Amino acid sequence: MRISVLPLIALLLVTLLPSPAAAGAAIATNDTEAVVLKDFEALSAGDAEGLAALFAPRIEMYRLPTEAHTLVGPRSDRMRTREELRAYFEEAFVAKPPVRHEVLEMVSLDDLAVVRVAIHAPDGTPAEHAFTAFRVRDGLIESIWHIAREPAAAPQSGAAARATIRQLGEANNRGDADAVVALYHPDAKHSHARRDPARLGGAPPARVIDQASRRRFYRELYAEGTPTQVGLVDSAALGEWVATRERYTAPDGPPRDHLTIYRVHDGLIIDEWHLAP
Fold it and tell me: I want to staple 193 with a disulfide (CB 3.0 to 4.6 A). Which of 97, 115, 160, 202 is the partner?
C-alpha cells in the first residue's frame, strides 16, 4: 500500500535556492503578484484612495504572531473593511510622510503570495525588512498576514535557513529518511492546508506529530521505492523564515506545485506550514 506523500510533506529542494544578495526589485509573474506590487506602490506614493481600490469590501489583517509555533497573529480590529482601511491610511499619510516599500522577493501560487519587502525610511537609516503573506481573489486583496520583521536586515538574511531547506530537499530526493529527520528539531511542528483551507497554514497532520512518528513516516515512505522528487520553482526568505514554491514529481503521476513556509533555527526546522494547494 502506497503512503500518500503530498498532504504530509511540504519539503524539499534539489535545486540551489537563490541568494537574497543577488535579488533586485521583484517583477510580477502573474495576476496575484501584480496586485501585491500595486499595493506597495500605493503605500510608497501615499495614495490612500489607490490603496483602498486594491482591497475587497471586507478584509482580514493579521498582526505579527505572538505565540510559539504559530504563523498567524492576532487579527486587527482597526481595518476590517475597505472603508476602514481608506480612513486609516488617509490619516496616517497626513500625520507622517509615506516611506518607500521595495519588494525584494516574492513567491506565489494561485491566490497566495509571500513577499520580502524592504521599508526605507526617509532619513536614510538601514531599511527594516518584513515578511508578509497576501491572499488575492478576483483581483482584490482579501487577507494580509504580517509574519516577521527584521530591523536593518542584511542582504544575506535568510541564507542559513535556505541552506537547511536545500539539504532537506537533497535528503528527500535520495530517499534518506534519517538525514531528513535529522534536519527537524525534535519538537518541530507540521501543518497543512487541506484540513482548513480558509486558514493560512491549516492544521496538523494526523500521522506526523512528534520525532518518533516523523522517523517512522519517512522510513515507511522511502521503503516503498523511488521517492517523490521535489524541485524549487521560486522562493523568498528573511531571517529564520523561508517560503518556497516546490514542484513535486511522483513516479506515477503528473507534477504538482505546492507553497510552503518553513521556520528554521540553528540549522533545524522548527515549523513547517503547507499553504497550498
Answer: 202
Q: How far is CA 92 from the centre of its chain?
A: 28
> Same structural domain for residues 43 and 114?
yes
157-216 residue pLDDT tens: 999 999 999 999 999 999 999 999 999 999 999 998 776 766 788 788 888 889 999 999
- 178 CB-side CA count, 13 A: 0
CA nearest 147: which of 166, 163, 129, 159? 129
Largest CA distance in the chain: 64
Neighbour tally for 235: CB within 10 Å: 26
Gap between the Cα atoms of 151 and 114, Å rounded = 19
Which residue has 535529522 as its cell numbers? Answer: 182
Reading across the β-sheet that carries 256-265, which strands appear in turn? 184-192, 268-276, 256-265, 241-249, 229-238
Whole-model pTM above 0.70? yes
* Rounded Cα distance, 149 and 55, in Å: 23
